[in-house]
Description:
The complex is a heterodimer of chains A (167) and B (179). By secondary structure, chain A is an alpha+beta fold. Helix content of chain A is 18%, strand content 32%. A 5-stranded antiparallel sheet of chain A has the order 1-2-3-6-7. Chain A has a 3-stranded antiparallel sheet with strand order 4-5-8. In chain A, a hairpin with a 5-residue loop joins β6 (113-119) and β7. The longest helix of chain A has 16 residues, at 26-41. In chain A, 38% of the residues are buried. In chain B, β6 (120-130) and β7 form a beta hairpin. In chain B, the strands form 2 sheets. Chain B has a 4-stranded antiparallel sheet with strand order 2-3-1-4, with helices on one face. Chain B has a 4-stranded antiparallel sheet with strand order 6-7-5-8, with helices on one face. The mean pLDDT of chain B is 94. Chain B is α+β, with helices and mostly antiparallel strands and 179 residues long. The chains are: A alpha+beta (167), B alpha+beta (179). The interface between A and B is medium-sized, with 27 and 17 residues. β4 of chain A pairs parallel with β9 of chain B.
Amino acid sequence: MAVRKILCYPDPLLKMVCEPVAELNQACDTLAQDLLDTMLASGHSVGVAAPQIGVSQRMVVVDVSNSKLGRNNNHGQLVMINPEILEQSGQKSMREGCMSVPDYTGNVVRAEEILVQFLDRRGDQQAIRATGFEAVAIQHELDHLDGLLFLDRVSSLKTDLFRRKKR
Amino acid sequence: MNHFALTIIGRDHPGIVARVTKVLFDLGCNIADSSCTILGGQFAMILIISHPRFSTRESFGTAFEPIEQDGLSVFLRTLQAGGEAAPQLPGELCLISVYGSDKPGIVYPVVKELGDRQINITDLNTQLVGSPERPVYVMMIEAILPPGIPLEKLAEVMAQLKDRLQVDISVRDITPVEL
């Protein structure tokens, strides 16, 4: 159990594709706890991915239940091991920021609703349908497992809703 | 290290950014923050630049002259120490959309309400859209609400303006989500 330091870009680990978790052993459980402790300790955070604390393994934690945007629509505290998005639909744009990319935010369009499959902390297969902010948070954290930062997904510069329209 | 603000504007065509940044590259300048965009038919570049040895505008010599001969206007300003660092303003980020049939006097009444309340504008752009017969004016403002002013209060102020100016105005929180 420990609060770990969040790595910041340009740490090369953040751009690597993570390895699947091969076996749910003690080390794996410790990693889950470290992720939860780190998420909790960083106050405003609603999710942390293993590579953000220096472990290149496919595990994330997400909890939007304490945030204004996710309070009324969430699955509580989630530990997701080897997660995979099976279905996605709709579109939702949010201005995202990331603890690993301080001082920069950008508009990102993500699916509004996702069906995501994963192993929970006990090793049981789970599938949940997440929507809204929780869906956005999960997609953001899962991107970390593929070495993608929100910077790779910024969809528009600032507020230029109308700018691309030719007159 | 001294920083400078460089503004360049001219009739838009491909190659302006390459032309300008080649000059900066050859001089050995660093580009820090920059914002470049099309406004009307013009391409406008605003850059904060620095150079390890340059301390005044004179240091640049005649480096920008060829760009000016190409029809671009160049303006260089020396920043005072610290002028390159962004201020850390506390508060919630909000977006104000203002739009309606084009008519004189839309921008000032809106931003006056913000200025009067010390609401800092961090980004503002306006654009004339729609058809020539029925032009529509669109203004997007990003601003930081100081701790004492809730979004509801700003929405109230804007609602009053909406009636007075006969435009549509909406206000929403766009505080980034940290993930």
